[in-house]
């Protein structure tokens, strides 16, 4: 660690103590800064740097992959899945190869790869009012 980094770390330690002091004082930031002779800009700057430093040390959990459910609780009838010439080519190329599953508490909805926009919109409207 070079001299510049050591000075920065010393300032961070000083401001960590000052920010804790302000928090414990019961005064607003403005009142505390006026009483201690610091600018609100300096206070907010160092508080921001301390938060950023704290965030670097926190490890976030890994993203959990979604799994296909073993049972289908709601399956739309085949008539809701338009195929063939009625479906635009642009939509055909974007179709996923498997069913989309959405869960809301005890409710699970599975939407097939060829579900129409209208069918999906109807499902969303219905779930919104559950």
Please provide a written account of the structure.
This protein is mainly α and 130 residues long. The protein folds into 2 domains: 3-57; 78-128, no CATH class. Helices cover 50% and strands 8% of the residues. The chain has helices spanning 3-25, 29-36, 40-57, 89-92, 117-128, and strands at 100-104, 107-111.
In the predicted model, the low-confidence regions spanning at least 5 consecutive residues are 90-96
| Multimeric organization | single chain
Helix content: 40-55%
**SSE pattern:** HHHHEEH
User: What is the general shape?
Assistant: elongated
The separation of the N and C termini measures 59 Å
User: In this structure, how is the largest beta sheet organized?
Assistant: 2 strands, antiparallel
Question: In a nutshell, what does this entry contain?
Answer:
This protein is mainly alpha-helical. The chain contains 5 helices and 2 strands.
Task: Produce the secondary structure layout.
Layout: H1 3-25, H2 29-36, H3 40-57, H4 89-92, E1 100-104, E2 107-111, H5 117-128
Antiparallel strand pairs: 1-2
Helix pairs in contact: 1-3
Keywords for this entry:
130 residues, mainly alpha, 2 domains, two-stranded antiparallel sheet, 5 helices, 50% helix
